[in-house]
Amino acid sequence: MTAGSGRFEAGNADPVRVLVLGYGNPGRQDDGLGAAAVAEIETLNWPNVTAYDNYQLCIEDAIDVAEHDVVWFVDASRVGASPFAVTELSRATSVEFTSHLVRPEAILAMAEQYYNSTPCAYLLAIRGYEFEFIEALTPRASDNLRLAVHALAHQIHAVQSGVSR
After folding, report:
1. In terms of CB atoms within 10 Å, which end of the chain has fewer, N or C?
2. Starting at the edge strand that comes first in sequence, how are the strands of the sheet with 18-23 ordered?
3. Cβ(18)–Cβ(157) under 8 Å?
4. How crowded is residue 133: how many other Cβ atoms within 10 Å of its Cβ?
């Protein structure tokens, strides 16, 4: 898992602005992994790192995405790698969404189309197991969260300190 992919030039004095955008419903057990990850990242209180969560992505998120150099979308995954998987994202070739579903790639496309911004972007999909109407993470998902946040914090620190530039 590497952030930056050469997008940041050596010697650039501007600090790298990082956005961690978690989404999901904390009232649906492990669907709250995105919000829980944001809460953990916020405790680090790092400069130039913005973290917030929502129940779902919305088109207005393109504004915040456009104001950052690196964006981490964080969500629960019902299937897939455990404890987590990272995918580098590209903007969608067309912007499609419904009132209840906006994909990160569509947010990136809107950030480029309307704000001429193309941040490096990644999806951190943390493996969840139970999605019932209970406001608590399962023990296995909590373990995955701990590992995912550790890896994410390492990547944020690396890009902030210029290691990935």
Report:
1. N
2. 49-54, 18-23, 70-77, 120-127, 84-89
3. no
4. 8
pLDDT of 95 strictly over 70: no
Tally Cβ neighbours within 10 Å of residue 75: 21
End-to-end CA distance of the chain: 14
Q: Which H or E element spans position 62?
A: helix 61-66
Which amino acid is present at 137?
Answer: L
Instruction: Enter the DSSP assignment of 143.
Output: H
d(CA 123, CA 101): 16
* pLDDT at residue 97, rounded to an integer: 65
Q: Which amino acid is at 64?
A: D
Query: What six digits make up the tokens of 16?
Result: 């790298």
- Domains in the chain, ordered, with CATH? 18-94+101-160 (3.40.50.1450)
Percent of the chain's residues with pLDDT above 70:
86
Full-model pTM: 0.90
pLDDT over threshold 80, residue 66? yes
**Residues 49-61 as b or e (16 or more Cβ within 10 Å = b):** bbbebbbebeeeb
The answer to whether residues 95 and 61 touch, using CB atoms and an 8 Å cutoff, is no
